[in-house]
């Protein structure tokens, strides 16, 4: 195929994305205010809890089988490499530009996590449907492409809500409360408040004697004793009693579970991935649900109806969120340029080397569509979930909007050029 033909094929899905994004942007304008803050919040919940799980579970159940899942093992590795390499380049960037410390997590996260969801769900099927597509039959290409992108979306969600969530939180102002979740005890003494953070139980024991002498006349609420009992802290009047071995084990387990934050790992998309894979791999369940003659085929078709609403809803939210990027922020110009360089120059070049090496040693096989999706996972704008994470920690919200505005604006050109080159490369 001629390079110009590939360029036109790659340009059409990007234009579709931009048009839907522009509609979302206009709906969020204060004069129209259809997608205001409250509306975006509710629509985002519907997408997060209903549309995305239906899309992921349905796509994987339809296309993934016990034999095909073995050939997809490199995709989680490839996505993990995009996160690790991107975060490393982001760390170098914040050091070079001397970014304020509370924004380090935002910049590193923006360089690490790409939008592995709604953009690919538009781009890949559109590329398959074009008559000049190098990926063969339209219907099989679209079906397989949607399944691969759904798996990419689910794996990316796990990495974002574990890896990136922890990075942004560790630099945020609320990291001590939301990640470490150190217990705070308030003692009211004649109108005064003392905050005792029980991060170290040994320290609590050593200081118990001094606290007792200082607050003998204080009225201590019942929740202090409850907190002390929960962590097996010895009472002040029993100074010789030491923390039990069970108490220490419980302390370390609680600390690890708080930092890992397992609840954020098992998002609806992750659970839907597990359900979809089980349906596809386990033959008896697959025969019940998948196929025109399946007894419970209506469940699969209902999930498909919900899945069809995922892409337009997510893209409208992206456009509406970009409105915040027009506001002023303290983000430097060179920092934005650096993020653009990392996402659209450095990462794609590194990705070409990784995927070509994996193909050379036989890790990814000869499927052109699979190799293309592995390549396109590198030059993507930052994941929109980063905006949600910054809102959770209340750090860098306006700066995040500016980053999203510029990276998604430049993505119109960058994704078109890289998609064209990647199609030429695999064909």
TrEMBL record:
The chain crosses the membrane at residues 6-30, 42-61, 73-94, 106-127, 147-168, 265-285, 305-323, 335-357, 369-393, 405-426. Its main location: endoplasmic reticulum. InterPro entries: Mem_transp_PIN-like, PILS1/3/4/5/7. It is a multi-pass membrane protein. It comes from the Eukaryota. GO terms for cellular component: endoplasmic reticulum membrane. Keywords: Auxin signaling pathway, Endoplasmic reticulum, Membrane, Transmembrane, Transmembrane helix, Transport. It holds the Pfam family Mem_trans. It is found in: Endoplasmic reticulum membrane. GO terms for biological process: auxin-activated signaling pathway; endoplasmic reticulum to cytosol auxin transport. Belongs to the auxin efflux carrier (TC 2.A.69.2) family. Involved in cellular auxin homeostasis by regulating auxin metabolism. Regulates intracellular auxin accumulation at the endoplasmic reticulum and thus auxin availability for nuclear auxin signaling. This is Auxin efflux carrier. It comes from Tagetes erecta. The lineage of its organism: Eukaryota, Viridiplantae, Streptophyta, Embryophyta, Tracheophyta.
């Amino acid at each position: 195929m001629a390079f110009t033909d590939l360029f036109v094929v790659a340009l059409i899905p990007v234009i579709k994305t931009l048009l839907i994004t522009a509609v979302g942007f206009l709906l969020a304008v204060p004069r129209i205010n259809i997608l205001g803050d409250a509306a975006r919040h509710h629509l985002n919940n519907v997408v997060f809890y209903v549309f995305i799980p239906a899309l992921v579970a349905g796509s994987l159940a339809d296309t993934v089988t016990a034999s095909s899942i073995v050939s997809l093992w490199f995709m989680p590795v490839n996505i993990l490499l995009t996160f690790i390499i991107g975060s490393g380049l982001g760390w170098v960037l914040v050091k070079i530009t001397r970014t304020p410390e509370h924004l380090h997590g935002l910049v590193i996260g923006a360089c690490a996590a790409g939008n592995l969801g709604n953009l690919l769900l538009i781009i890949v099927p559109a590329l398959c449907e074009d008559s000049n597509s190098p990926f063969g039959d339209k219907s099989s290409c679209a079906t397989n492409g949607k399944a691969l992108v759904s798996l990419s979306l689910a794996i990316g969600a796990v990495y974002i809500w574990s890896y990136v969530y922890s990075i942004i939180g560790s630099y945020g102002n609320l990291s001590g409360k939301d990640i470490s979740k150190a217990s705070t005890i308030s003692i009211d003494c004649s109108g005064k408040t003392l905050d005792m953070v029980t991060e170290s139980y040994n320290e609590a024991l050593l200081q118990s004697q001094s606290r007792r002498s200082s607050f003998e006349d204080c009225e201590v609420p019942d929740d202090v004793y409850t907190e002390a009992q929960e962590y097996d802290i010895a009472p002040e009047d029993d100074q010789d009693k030491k923390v039990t071995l069970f108490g220490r084990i419980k302390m370390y387990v609680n600390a690890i579970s708080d930092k890992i934050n397992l609840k954020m790992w098992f998002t609806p998309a992750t659970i839907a991935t597990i359900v979809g894979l089980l349906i596809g791999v386990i033959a008896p369940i697959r025969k019940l649900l998948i196929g025109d003659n399946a007894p419970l085929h209506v469940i699969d078709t209902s999930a498909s109806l919900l899945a069809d609403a995922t892409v337009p809803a997510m893209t409208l939210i992206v456009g509406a969120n970009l409105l915040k990027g027009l506001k002023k922020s303290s983000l430097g110009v060179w920092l934005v340029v650096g993020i653009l360089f990392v996402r659209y120059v450095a990462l794609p070049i590194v990705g070409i080397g990784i995927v070509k090496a994996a193909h050379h040693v036989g890790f990814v096989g000869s499927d052109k569509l699979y190799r293309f999706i592995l390549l396109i996972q590198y030059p993507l704008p930052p994941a929109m979930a980063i905006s949600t994470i910054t809102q959770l920690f209340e750090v860098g919200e306006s700066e995040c909007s500016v980053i999203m505005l510029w990276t998604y604006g430049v993505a119109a050109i960058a994704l078109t050029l890289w998609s064209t080159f990647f199609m030429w490369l695999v064909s």
